[in-house]
Write a structure and sequence with these properties.
This protein is of the alpha+beta class. The protein has one domain: Electron Transport, Fmn-binding Protein, Chain A (Pnp Oxidase, Chain A). It has three helices and eight strands. Strands 1, 2, 3, 4, 5, 6, 7 and 8 form an eight-stranded antiparallel β-sheet that branches. A hairpin with a 2-residue loop joins strand 7 and strand 8.
């Protein structure tokens, strides 16, 4: 299990990283990596601070277009990894686990951010608005001055 210092580093990176990177397995078998909004960053997404309420809960939540290639890739193979880091720091964490498509309409509404209408014109009810969640089972990375790898579940 995670020691307190490592857990604090991970939760800080989740709260402070400006973007996160999501990796899926592409149809050709190669990793597909893309930058995503870090919804746990409270400066960028103050209305989503509820995602950080429990310091022991490092569930990853992202929103994306239902029609996106990443959703298709997750449906084909739900094993994903995400990566958080801060430029200028020698600290980073990769979290891996199994993604789930969130069907809970109440949660999708709670997560909704008004300016997302540029991506989902019909709002939180837009059929092209998808929420993906992942409870990490593995954390690996670098916490100066050491690397780490920890099974979480």
């Amino acid at each position: 299990m995670l020691d307190n210092e490592l857990m604090e580093l991970i939760t800080r990176l989740l709260r402070e990283a400006e973007i996160m990177y999501l990796a899926t397995k592409g149809a050709d078998g190669h990793p597909q990596i893309r930058a995503m909004f870090n919804l746990r960053n409270e400066k960028q997404f103050p209305t989503l601070s509820f995602l950080n309420q429990d310091p022991d809960d490092i569930t990853i939540t992202v929103s994306t277009n239902t029609s996106s290639r990443k959703v298709e890739e997750i449906r084909n193979d739900p094993r994903i990894s995400v990566y958080y880091c801060k430029p200028g720091e020698s600290n980073g964490v990769q979290l891996s686990g199994t993604a789930e498509i969130v069907d809970d309409k109440e949660f999708k509404h709670r997560l909704w951010v008004d300016w997302w209408e540029r991506y989902y014109p019909k709002g939180a009810e837009d059929p092209d608005y998808t929420v993906i969640s992942m409870k990490p089972t593995l954390a690996r990375g670098w916490a100066t001055p050491r690397k780490f790898e920890v099974r979480l579940r």
